[in-house]
Amino acid sequence: LIERLTKINIAQNESNAAVTLKLISAALENYAKDNLGAYPVNFSLLAQTKLPYLDKDYLAKSPLKGYNYSCLRLEPSCYNCSASPTRCKLTGNTVYTITTGGSLISEICERKE
Questions:
Q1: DSSP string, 70-82
Q2: Cis peptide preceding 63, ω within 30 of 0
Q3: CA–CA separation, 37 vs 92, rounded Å?
Q4: How far apart are the two ends of the chain, measured CA to CA in Å?
Q5: Secondary element (H or E) of residue 6
Q6: What one-character DSSP code corresponds to residue 92?
Q7: Is residue 112's pLDDT more than 60?
Q8: 3-state secondary structure at position 105
Q9: Is 15 within 8 Å of 93 (Cβ atoms)?
């Protein structure tokens, strides 16, 4: 029973992480459309504008539902954001990365414990 519940929890966490990264990407792309093609250099700007692109700063609120969110590269010309399980194989099995233009990549996380 515990194993089954863990699998269900992992599946929900992974689905949420992929959707959240797509939401982050859409916000970054919309910000760039409104700002002469430039992405923000500070992620928190997406939630701080008069009409916010995001409902909250997902990086500052991380971890969320078993995943840590980060943007390792956030420059006016490009971005690279990721979602990694807080505990590989326990809160998620997959690391997701989304890059400029909304390309979502997934890979199996490696146990580091």
A1: EEEEEETTEEEEE
A2: yes
A3: 34
A4: 24
A5: helix 2-34
A6: B
A7: no
A8: strand
A9: no
Rounded to 5 degrees, φ, ψ at 12 are -65, -45
Identify the band that residue 2 occupies on the pLDDT scale cut at 50, 70 and 90: confident
Give the separation between CA 55 and CA 30, rounded to whole angstroms. 14
pLDDT of 37 higher than 90? yes
Q: How many angstroms separate the CA atoms of 113 and 64, rounded?
A: 20
pLDDT digits (tens, 9 = 90+) for 76-101: 999 999 999 999 999 999 999 999 99
User: Helix/strand/coil (H, E, C) string of 19-66?
Assistant: HHHHHHHHHHHHHHHHCCCCCCCCCCHHHHCCCCCCCCCCCCCCCECC
